[in-house]
Sequence to fold (271 residues):
Amino acid sequence: MGGHLLNEGPTFDSLTYGIMLEGRFRSHGRLENLENAILNYEKAIKYAEPSHYACRSKFYQRLEDALTLHHERAVKFPLNNQTNAPAHHYKLGDVLLERFERFGELEDLDSAISNLQKSVDLTPEGHPDKKRFRNRLRYGMEKKAHIEGERIEEERIETEYIKMELIEKELTEKKRIKKEHIEKERIEKARIEKARIERERIERERTEKERIERERTEKECAEREHTEKGRIGKAVTRPENGRPVKKQFRSRFGYGFGKKTRIEKAGPIRA
Fold:
C-alpha cells in the first residue's frame, strides 16, 4: 500500500478515528463509541484501493474484532429496555449485514436479521425510522431467502445426482447379475452336453464290447459244433481192427443170431 494511504487521506483518517473511538469504548464502555468505530473501519475499507490487499486485510481484521466486541457487549447487556435500543440493534444489524456481503458468513446474516428484527419490533408505529428499519430487514430477509433458495436448489441437484448415481449403480448391478446368470447357463449347458457326449461314448463302447463278445461266443460255438461233428463223423467211419465198422456190426450180428439158432435146436438144458 502506498505511503499516502497510511499518512493521509480518508482511509488513514477513518482508520485513525475508528481506533480512537474503540479505545474510548474500552475505557468508558459507551456503546456509541464502538458503533462509530465500526462505521469508521468500514469507511477505511471502502476508501482503500482494491489492489492493497495487505492493508485491506488488516482493516477487515479490525472491523471483525470490533463487531465481535459489539456482539459480546450486546449479549451481556441487552438493549431492549433502553430508549436507544432500536438504533443500536439497527446499527449492529446493518454492520453485520455488510460484513456478510463481504465474507459470506451465514452466521453474520442470521445475526444481522435478528438485530434488524429487534430494531423493528422495539420501534413504535409512526416513528420516522420504522420504515428504514423495515426496509433494511426486508433486504436481509431477501438475501436469506435467496441463499436458502440456492441451497435448496443445490440440495435438489445433489439429490438428483445421487439418485442418478444410484440408478446407474442399480443398472450396472443388474447387468452384472444378468451376465453372471448367462455365464452360469452357458457353463451348465456345456456341462450337460459334455455329460451327454460321455454317456453316448460309454454306451457305444458297451455296445461294441457286447458285439465283440457275442461274435466271439458265436465263433466259439461254431467251432465247438464243427469239432463235435467232425469227431462223431470220424467215430462212425473210422475202421476198427482194420475192418470197416459196418462189416464189424454185421459180423457180430451174424454171430449172435447163429448162436441163438443152435440153442433152440438143442432144446432145454437138462440138469
Notes: The chain has a mean pLDDT of 79.
